[in-house]
Design a protein that fits this description.
The complex is a heterodimer of chains A (297) and B (328). Chain A has 297 residues and is mostly helical. Chain A has 17 helices and no strands. In chain B, helix 8 links the parallel strand 6 and strand 7. In chain B, helix 3 packs parallel to helix 4, helix 3 runs parallel beside helix 5 and helix 10 runs antiparallel to helix 11. Classes of the chains: A mainly alpha (297), B alpha/beta (328). Chains A and B meet through helix 3, helix 7 and helix 9 of A and helix 3, helix 4 and helix 5 of B.
């Protein structure tokens, strides 16, 4: 179907199978029965009520996909990530796929109302479903709005392991997402598309932010320097040097990684002062991944 | 060197002074089944957590002045389920709520109709442990109309009802509230009659309802009177709450009352019943409350942080020493 940017039938079927595998008999029967009602009546109030009531039946156990389930899902939807979700969230995301797309205005209105009346876990489910919703360009404003949330699980549903923002958000909204993630101490390496969406406007904001923090005697998340890799220039070389010369080993390694990965020769030259670090990077023993592990929050 | 650099980590630790009542209730856990946290500050959450409050219920009520549109009701209900619940979790407190149209605003018929229309959207949500607080204020026909309509909603959803009883003409209002609930076929064990006093308690208990007492300075019960009530009526189906809100009230009313009961020689088991387990039992009938979740809330999730705050560590909330002029 043209409304969906992926094979909706297959994904819906696969999610349904996964939910059945994880759920108990009572939950599965109830979901089946609600689906029948939905298919027969197409009515919106019972659709909304089912969406809300799902945790009462599925419970909130954390799901772990089998390697096979994971592989199947990755084939259909690369970088869509459900590991660690409560079962209720997966069931809610699946349920959203059961809403007919025959009437676009009705669909948008229904989702708008679900968002407006949603509690925290419902919001997390709705934002987690972004990569699966039809008419993907319709959810840009909603996503920008969600980034303003002050509630941890809602922020995480949008920012972490979610391929939608990187694919669809315009640059200012994307930059806002990254900065909000930094302000709220999110693990930056879990932001899908962090490297691909790096841009010079974001780099300038980050450098200003670093100066502000330094002036206040505060620290920075060393992972933020990763965003500068392709944007090192004469204006921010001094900042990279400062990070590289840091006494904090994680910061120092972050600075070294930037110098090793940039094409900007003066930065590469800086790294020559630290041959031991350069060797470790070359050997793959220092990478953004090892840094993320050390920097774990 | 300027003064700020002379501060050590020690200076930023909380005060070692603890109020005397905290000693008496050390290690006890409390459940406040009626407190309006949207009107309170983070200092209150901190103090409640320190005093052993592990879970609370926030009933939907009015906001001190009448609302003029249904949208503000929607946002209010939504904030009880969202932002307020999240705020509580920052302090390791599990936050539940009851949802309903309060009696005061039931008197604005046009608005009340609109609110009734959105209520079903909210009462089925996770962690909604009842319909409340509903009942009578001025005992007008409109109050009665919407009280009845909401009893029907509660019955359909299988949820307990949290009844607000009026300040004026209290005894009659309380009787009427119970009569009407029975008329609608609700079981007394599904109904928590709130704001009791010495005059109302006997009938409420005799008829099989839960009797809640609000310890609220000046206008409702004092905790010395509460001690006497428990001595006289025992601990069965009785619970204590603070109903702390935007008025002069005390979010520590439940732990303080427990301390006073302890000091007055009331058995620890009875204290536990009236300050914790009776309320848990009454509202757990919603199927939306699980004591095991209180423990989970107590383990503060490090991924859930305040906007911009990076000073949470070792499972601690950010603490501020109120006695220093330095703010960092």
């Amino acid at each position: 179907m043209a409304e969906y940017a992926y094979d909706q039938d297959k994904v819906s079927t696969l999610l349904s199978t996964i939910i059945r595998n994880k759920g108990n008999e009572k939950a599965n029967n109830w979901l089946q029965q609600r689906l029948q009602v939905q298919q027969q009546t197409g009515a919106i109030p019972p659709f909304n009520q089912t969406f809300t009531a799902i945790p009462r039946f599925t419970g909130n156990d954390i799901i772990t996909l089998s390697p096979l389930e994971n592989e199947q899902l990755q084939q259909l939807l690369p970088s869509f990530f459900v590991q660690g979700w409560p079962l209720s969230r997966l069931a809610r995301v699946w349920w959203l796929l059961q809403l007919p797309v025959t009437d676009k205005a009705l669909y948008l209105d229904t989702l708008e109302k679900l968002f407006n009346a949603a509690e925290m876990n419902e919001l997390a489910a709705l934002y987690s479903a972004l990569p699966l919703l039809p008419w993907p360009e319709e959810w840009i404003a909603r996503t920008s709005e969600g980034i303003r949330s002050n509630i941890g699980i809602v922020q995480e549903a949008i920012m972490l392991h979610n391929p939608y923002p990187a694919k669809y958000l315009p640059e200012p909204a994307w930059n806002q997402l990254v900065m909000k993630a930094i302000f709220t101490d999110k693990p930056l390496h879990l932001i899908t598309g962090l490297d691909e969406r790096a841009n010079s406007a974001l780099v300038n904001i980050l450098v200003d932010f670093a100066h502000e923090r330094w002036a206040a005697g505060r620290t920075l998340d060393p992972m933020q320097w990763r965003i500068l890799v392709n944007f090192v220039n004469e204006n921010n070389l001094g900042d990279i040097a400062r990070v590289l010369h840091s006494l904090n080993s994680i910061e120092q390694e972050a600075g070294a990684l930037v110098c090793a990965q940039t094409n900007y020769a003066p930065a590469k030259a800086l790294l020559a002062q630290y041959p031991a670090l350069a060797t470790e990077i070359q050997a793959g023993r220092i990478s953004w991944d090892t840094l993320a592990q050390k920097n774990k929050k | 060197m300027c003064g700020i650099h002379d501060l050590t980590e020690k200076d930023l630790q909380p005060l070692t002074y603890t109020p005397a009542f905290l000693d008496k209730i050390k290690g006890m856990r409390f459940f406040d089944p009626h407190v309006h946290m949207t009107a309170r500050t983070t200092d209150d959450y901190q103090a409640m957590a320190d005093a052993g409050v592990v879970a609370i219920i926030e009933p939907a009520f009015w906001l001190g002045q009448p609302r003029t549109g249904v949208d503000t009701f929607r946002d209010y209900f939504s904030s009880l389920l969202g932002w307020e619940r999240f705020r509580a979790s920052q302090f390791g407190i599990k936050h539940y709520c009851t949802i309903g149209l309060n009696s005061k605003e039931a008197n604005n018929e046009k608005l009340a109709e609109a609110v009734m229309e959105i209520l079903p959207q909210f009462i089925y949500k996770e962690g909604v442990v009842g319909v409340g607080e509903i009942g009578f204020d001025d005992q007008t026909p409109l109050e009665e109309k919407y009280y009845r309509a909401q009893l029907e909603l509660a019955k359909e959803a299988g949820l307990p009802v949290q009844i607000h009883t009026p300040h004026r003409d209290k005894k009659k209002g309380t009787q009427r509230s119970m009569d009407i609930a029975l008329e609608h076929g609700l079981e007394p064990h599904m109904i928590i009659v709130d704001h009791n006093n010495e005059e109302t308690v006997k009938e409420v208990l005799d008829r099989g309802f839960w009797a809640a007492f609000t310890i609220y300075p000046f206008t409702k019960m004092g905790n010395e009177r509460m001690v006497a009530v428990v001595k006289q009526y025992g601990s069965e189906r009785i619970m204590v709450n603070s109903a702390a809100d935007w008025g002069i009230s005390d979010p520590l009313a439940v732990p303080k009352t427990a301390a006073l009961m302890h000091e007055s020689g009331i058995d620890l088991n009875d204290i536990h019943l009236v300050t914790y387990s009776n309320a848990v039992k009454a509202f757990a009938q919603s199927g939306q409350m699980n004591e095991a979740d209180f423990e989970i809330a107590g383990n503060i999730d490090q991924s859930e942080k305040f906007n911009g705050s990076s000073i949470l560590r070792g499972g601690q909330q950010p603490r501020i020493d109120k006695n220093t002029t330095i703010i960092r």
